[in-house]
Amino acid sequence: MKFRVERDVLAEAVTWTARTLPTRPPAPVLAGVRIEASADGTVGLSSFDYEVSARSEIPAEVSEPGLILVSGRLLAEISRSLPAKPVDFSVEGSKVTVVCGASRFTLLTMPVEDYPALPTMPDVTGTVHGDELTHAVAQVTVAASRDDTLPLLTGVRVEIEGERITMLATDRYRLALREMTWKPNSPDISTVALVRARTLSDVAKSLGGSGDVNVALSSGTGVDIIGFEAGGRHTTSLLIDGDYPHVRRLFPDETPIHAVVPTQPLIDAAKRVSLVAERNTPIRMTFSDGQVVLDAGQGDDAQASEALEAVLVGEDISVAFNPAFLLDGLGALGTDFVRMSFTHPNKPVEFTGQGSLDGEDDRSYRYLLVPIRFAS
């Protein structure tokens, strides 16, 4: 195998393909990146860990087609460090030589015949705009669990009904729901997929800037797979198997009390007040006519408090939140104002965004947070 490729093109493709390589692979070959040079002038780079696959294609001057497997992380580090000149790859026996300007590296190849067959990309199901996908996924995945002992909750439930996609995630302490539109190939499509939050987040960040993203779903074939493709790159992931809890019913039907607060000032105040909050201790928020008071710390410990202007509709109310969970929800809104809707001081509080102080709230994104009980 022999080919020449531009350094920046190579570095970007190798880094993207190698990003999901396992730290402790179950088999040594799974730490490799599969490189296939074709006579049509393309080089395909692939990685696979039996759950997530990634493949990118780049243009190259291919003089001898071939197929090799090399250490993915090492090749990514080398390609990023090379000078800004064309890179030449050549293979002799069990070694591959990488030459770029005055730099020369020799790498051992891995047994490509031991590498597992890459999963087939399913047929495209529809298309979503990349920027909207990136924003929506970021809003939802903040609520997904990081606890791998509860694999169902590390996923995002993706519900597709015609032109509408609804994504839900929960870690039992908060729940995020985001609705968005897309362009399905079939207008009457109705399906549900449970996608790993880490995979979905990685895809949204890495493919979201490429314009439209093709989404492909394969189900009912014994192996359920979701695939994403944009800009000459595609990735697939096995879906999580199991029944996601019925979380939609947790959103309250009615909220007799709500408050509207400027979002960024509230974020800034919460960050300041939380400086004195010991681990696992809450920020208390007391709402009364015209203001909200945030405070943390008690007794002989350090204490902090800050008051902000707020509009309150309904009775005065006090609630307490985990500071990190509160900031996650506020940061995900992306609106000038936040509406916090209450049913009871100890019941989950719904966060929605508003564009103005007296406007309607945008319910395409809803963040539900369980308060912490505190002694009054």
From TrEMBL:
Compartmental location: Cytoplasm
Keyword annotations: Cytoplasm, DNA replication, DNA-binding, DNA-directed DNA polymerase, Nucleotidyltransferase, Transferase
CDD domains, alphabetized: beta_clamp
Keyword Signal: no
One of the record's GO cellular component terms: DNA polymerase III complex
Location of the DNA polymerase III beta sliding clamp N-terminal domain: 1-119
Residue ranges constituting the DNA polymerase III beta sliding clamp central domain according to the UniProt record: 128-245
Organism domain of life: Bacteria
Chief subcellular location: cytoplasm
Pfam families: DNA_pol3_beta, DNA_pol3_beta_2, DNA_pol3_beta_3
Entry annotated with the keyword Zinc: no
Primary role: Confers DNA tethering and processivity to DNA polymerases and other proteins. Acts as a clamp, forming a ring around DNA (a reaction catalyzed by the clamp-loading complex) which diffuses in an ATP-independent manner freely and bidirectionally along dsDNA. Initially characterized for its ability to contact the catalytic subunit of DNA polymerase III (Pol III), a complex, multichain enzyme responsible for most of the replicative synthesis in bacteria; Pol III exhibits 3'-5' exonuclease proofreading activity.
NCBIfam families associated with the record: dnan (TIGR00663)
Subunit structure comment from the entry: Forms a ring-shaped head-to-tail homodimer around DNA.
Membership in a protein family: Belongs to the beta sliding clamp family.
The name this protein goes by in its record: Beta sliding clamp
